[in-house]
């Protein structure tokens, strides 16, 4: 059963600007494991990765029903790719399955998160 859905649309250039202006932006948004992944990327791909994780965490907080804040913060959610490149939530405050999709164009990143409850009566 679906608990919540969330979507987000983020401009990659806006995230790039925040990254350039504020040294604390990346460690605020990304967990250490996510930072390690981003640091292995080059050029614009780093900005796409950062914008994707930022947007996905926004979408997650919407699916959770609280938005970003005390209930769900950037460090409470970690998204890493599997061996085939599919993103997975490896850390989250929700006690149930979570599904995530991240897609981008040259200028925008769009994310969707679906949180699911497990019905133990089935």
Description:
InterPro entries: 4-PPantetheinyl_Trfase_dom, 4-PPantetheinyl_Trfase_dom_sf, ACPS, Ppantetheine-prot_Trfase_dom. It comes from Furfurilactobacillus rossiae DSM 15814. Its EC number is 2.7.8.7. It is found in: Cytoplasm. One of its GO terms (cellular component) is cytoplasm. With 122 residues, the protein is α+β, with helices and mostly antiparallel strands. The protein has a single domain, classed as 4'-phosphopantetheinyl transferase domain (Ribosomal Protein L22, Chain A, Alpha-Beta Complex). Helices cover 36% and strands 29% of the residues. The chain is built from 4 helices and 5 strands, in the order βααααββββ. The protein has helices spanning 12-21, 25-29, 32-39, 44-64, and strands spanning 2-11, 78-81, 87-91, 98-104, 108-116. The strands form 2 sheets. It has a 3-stranded antiparallel β-sheet with strand order 1-5-4. Strands 2-3 form a two-stranded antiparallel sheet. Helix 1 crosses helix 4. The chain is globular, with a radius of gyration of 14 Å. The mean pLDDT is 94.
Set out the fold topology.
Blueprint: E1 2-11, H1 12-21, H2 25-29, H3 32-39, H4 44-64, E2 78-81, E3 87-91, E4 98-104, E5 108-116
Helix pairs in contact: 1-4
Subcellular location: Cytoplasm
GO molecular function, one term: magnesium ion binding
EC number: 2.7.8.7
